[in-house]
Structure formats: C-alpha cells, structure tokens
Amino acid sequence: MATTTAARREARQGARERILDTAYDLFSHRGIHAVGVDELVERAGVAKATLYKHFPSKHALVLAFLEQREQLWTHGWVESEARQRAATPAEQLLAIFDLFHEWFQADDFEGCSFINTLLEFRDLDHPVGRASADYLENIRSVVRNLALEADLRDPDAFALAWHILMKGSIVQAAEGDRDAAKRAQMLGRLLIEHHRHEHGTAADAA
Amino acid sequence: MATTTAARREARQGARERILDTAYDLFSHRGIHAVGVDELVERAGVAKATLYKHFPSKHALVLAFLEQREQLWTHGWVESEARQRAATPAEQLLAIFDLFHEWFQADDFEGCSFINTLLEFRDLDHPVGRASADYLENIRSVVRNLALEADLRDPDAFALAWHILMKGSIVQAAEGDRDAAKRAQMLGRLLIEHHRHEHGTAADAA
DNA sequence: CCCCAAACAGACAGTTCTGTCCACTGCTAA
DNA sequence: TTAGCAGTGGACAGAACTGTCTGTTTGGGG
Fold first, then answer.
1. B190: buried, middle or exposed (CB in 10 Å: 19+, 13-18, 0-12)?
2. pLDDT at A205
3. Which of A23, A82, A179, B6 is the most exposed place for a label (fewest CB within 10 A)?
C-alpha cells in the first residue's frame, strides 16, 4: 500500500530524482534532523539501499538538497521573478519584497532553508554549515549585481545591508508577522535612497 | 573525576541552579536537540534522577532555559545596558547595536536563543515554539517602550521594523559578518528619522 | 529468450536518546 | 540518636536514528 505499482514505475525512471524531490519537500519544511531516512524513503517510494546507492550518506543528500534549493529558490524564483517583475534594477530590488510578501502568506511557509540549516548545524566548519553560508553569500551576489546595475554606491556594503532586511523579514515571518515583507520593503527604500550617488557619503552629523 | 567532591558540595546547595546554569550554557551555544540529557547531567555534576525531580521533562527544562534567557539577555543585558549607555531614548535604541557589535566579536557567539529555538522546533503550536515567539514579542515590547519615550510616530510599526534589523543582523553575524551590527545601526538611524513626527506620513510618490 | 543491472522489502547492527527505577549515602533537624 | 530528605550512580526499557546486508523482483537490451 505504501508503494503502489504506479509509484514503482515512476521510481524506475528516476529514483534519484524522486529521492531528491522528497528530500526537498521534507527538509525544507521540517528541517534536517527532524526527518529520518526511513520516513524519507517511504515517502519517496524507494528502497533504503537505493538511497544509499545514490547518496553516500544523509549529509551528502542534505548537500544535494541545498544545491537544489539554490537552483529552485535563489535563482529560479527570487532572481528570475524579481528581474521579470520590474523594469529598473532599483525596482527589481524592491520587487524581491513583493515576492516575499506573497511567500509569507502561504500556510506552509517554510522559511529560508539556508538560514534554517545553518542554525541547525551551527558550525561553519561542518560541510553542511559551510555550504549553507556559501549559498547565503550567493544570494548576496544576486543583490550586489542588481545594486551594480542600479548604479548604487558601494554595492558590497549595500548587498550586506540589504541581506539583513531579507533575512530579518524571513525570520519575522516565521514568528507570524505576515506583513514583514512590507516593513522590510520600506526599509529597503530608505537604504536605496541612502546609496544613491547624489547622496553624499559625508558625515550625517551627530 | 567527572564529579569532584567540591562539585558535589556545590550540588548539594542548589542542584536546580546548577542544572539550569548548565542548560543555559549548553542550549544557548549548541541548540536543544544537539544536547542530550546525559551530557547535561554530567556537566552539571548531578544525577539524572535529580534533573527529573526538578524538571518533569527535557521540554520543561527548555522552557525554564528560555525564561532564564529572557531575564539574563533581554532584560539583564539588552534593555538595561542600552538604557545605561545613552541619555536619550533614540540614542538608547541605537545603543542596542553598539551592544550587538561587541557581542558579535565574541568567539563563542551563540546567536539569539529565541530565534534558534523557534527555528529548531518550527511549530508555533508546540509549547516551546510558542514560548520562543512570545519572548521575541517581549523584545519588541522593550523596543516599543523606547520608541514611545522617543516620541516616535507609530511605535508598534516602528518596533516591528526595528526588530527586523535586530534579527537580521544576528543571523548575519552567525554567518560570519562581524560588522552586521554597524550596518543594522545605519539602517536604524534611517528608520528613526523616518518615524520622527516632523516627518510626514504622506505618500512618498510612486 | 535470457541475462543483468537496478530497484525492491525488510531484517539487522550499533548507537543514541528520553525517561524510570532502585539501592545507597550523607547531612540536618528534631 | 534517629528519621527524613535530597542527591548519587548506574542499570534499564523503549523508541528512534543511520547505515549495511541479504535475497527477491522486474524490465529492457543483446
């Protein structure tokens, strides 16, 4: 009953994909340690030995999940949607928070898997923690590129500050604040204004 | 060797305190699930039965830890230090990020236990997740009071936005950005300016 | 037709975790 | 002196976890 014939046929033509897709669903919504290998293989309709043939360990599967998350979330969703939804780079940056606003309304809102996984492992030396931090850095890279295109002053500092807004709003959404994206967007407007070239870098007085 | 006679004498005059202190250290630095009861009782120099006499379960101990965290961190550190370090309420708000800056330089930086625990349990219905979210709300309450004293416009919205900066900078510090507090402070200045009464609430144009 | 590679189910080892229990010890107060 | 109480150390049950292994099934290419 757990694995129907149909599921099996599916499995035949891509056990690895089924495993990775299932891992994506489970890991992103419930975290790493809360999902056991037994549950994972059952949900994927796959034998345990098959999982361990495709992935040498659970950690290796976690790394593959994070890579998938970057493809689907960072690039496939945030970057591409933000670029499509607005005309100018500055508006594209702000559009990130329009996306977030829709995301935060979801009942099964899962948060940022890179933040979640990093805090779950809490060790930048561990391969999984390291990978999480690296993928977060790649998000900043997307932001930095938009900042460059928008001709903003000091794109590196801008991206770091902008990312604080992104992460802060995501964590706040996990707390239950459905309007967190709107607040972050307002702050984003102030930040963009602050990084306009016309804007002086000089002292803001005491 | 694990429990010296001195440790034992200590235990005698306050086993509960020793357990809670040890839980505070271990849970705040390594998270909840990563710390087992066996390790905890050994580090506390206490018998397992003693722990379960004072706390009916590990979850109950986690709740006591979170309460302790609010006392020591939220009120005993953030609130009281911020109020002492500056004269005006607006400067006291900004002083929060001076505190954070010092905090972020620590080699054993542990992050915000309320965020960490909330994301670890990822369930606002679970008592531990609920408590974490509640304690985060209490942090906002501290911010809101300072905003009121600073006579800022819409203290509730201000506190929510300000908290995004606090949490975002903490997560970014966990990634390794030691200057995250400075960036958040700069955003904080913009936010305070935006909430000054003289500042118009009216449309910011399209 | 038949063989082989891939996937199957599921038992198993070994560890780790929470929580319970029991017999023993030492201090303190009546 | 003695009774009570708080704590000790360690064994134990029961569950859950990762990873291994055995033997079986199945479908497609030579």
1. middle
2. 38
3. B6
* Angstrom distance (rounded) from CA A143 to CA A152: 11
Task: Give the nucleotide at minimum CA-to-C1' distance from A19.
Answer: C7
Express each pLDDT in A69-99 by its tens digit: 999 999 999 999 999 999 999 999 999 999 9
Confidence class for position A4, pLDDT limits 50, 70, 90 = very low
Amino acid at A15: A
CA of B67 to C1' of C1 (A): 73
Tell me the two tokens of residue B106: 């620590």
How far is A97 from A122, CA to CA, in rounded Å?
Answer: 27
Please give the single-letter amino acid code of residue A105: Q
Chain-centroid distance of CA B152 in Å reads 24
The span from the CA of A190 to the CA of A160, in Å, is 15
Cβ atoms A82, A92 nearer than 8 A = yes
Return the H-helix or E-strand segment holding A42: helix A37-44
Please answer yes or no on whether B119 and A111 come within 8 Å at the CB atom.
Answer: yes
Residue at shortest CA–C1' distance from D22: A49
> b or e along B95-111 (b: 16 or more beta carbons within 10 Å of the residue's beta carbon)?
bbbbebbebbeeeeebb
At B166-195, the pLDDT tens digits run 999 999 999 999 999 999 999 999 999 999
The mean predicted confidence, pLDDT, of chain A is 91
Q: Is the dihedral angle over the CA atoms B175, B179, B181, B185 positive or is it negative?
A: negative
- Three-class DSSP category at B57: coil
Contact criterion met (CB below 8 Å) for B99 and B81: yes
